[in-house]
Every structure is written in structure tokens, then in C-alpha cells.
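Kindly inspect this chain:
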Amino acid sequence: MMGPYGGVLGREAGPAVVRFIDGMPRRFEVATENVRISGAMIEISASMARAEKIELLTVRRSVRDALLVLRAS
């Protein structure tokens, strides 16, 4: 996953929650605070076919830095 930690699919959470409750369309602003890229690294035992270790990976960046990284790739 990647995007603002407190957002809903990259948008500000407040309007998304209110729309879910009342069903009325509204404008969704792009969330820009507390941007993170998160994932998990999982070590799997081939003989047991089960996870032996699960590690959370999180990279925190400012929006400006995240955009620079995306444009460079």
C-alpha cells in the first residue's frame, strides 16, 4: 500500500466517511499529510509451506520527496 496514512484510497478521510454514511456525492481532495509506502516481507518455509517470519516495511516521505522518487523511476 502507499499513500497518506490517515486517508482513504489517497483522499482525505472526512468526506469519504460522510459520503459512506449519507450516500451524497461530494468532492474528494487529495490527502497530502503523512505519506507512507508500506508492505511486508515474509520468509516462507519451503518444507512446511508456512510463514516463518513476517516483517513490516514502512518508508515515510514528504509528498515532495515521494513525487521526486516516482518521477525518477
Summary: Residues 30 and 47 are 45 Å apart (CA to CA). Residues 13-22 form the longest helix (10 residues). The longest strand covers residues 50-61.
